[in-house]
Specification:
Blueprint: H1 10-19
Length: about 45
């Protein structure tokens, strides 16, 4: 199964921001909701 997730999708960005509590996954530093990068999304099945 091949899924393509657009990292510019506003709903996806809002969920990712919420899941990581507004912090960078790698550094743990706070990020701005409208200014962070999503490198890739790997869904759990």
């Amino acid at each position: 199964m091949n899924h393509l997730y657009k990292t510019t999708n506003k709903k996806l960005r809002k969920v990712m921001f919420s899941v990581f509590n507004g912090k960078c996954f790698y550094s743990g530093q706070p990020v701005q909701e409208d200014g962070f990068e999503i490198d890739h999304v790997v869904p759990r099945i």
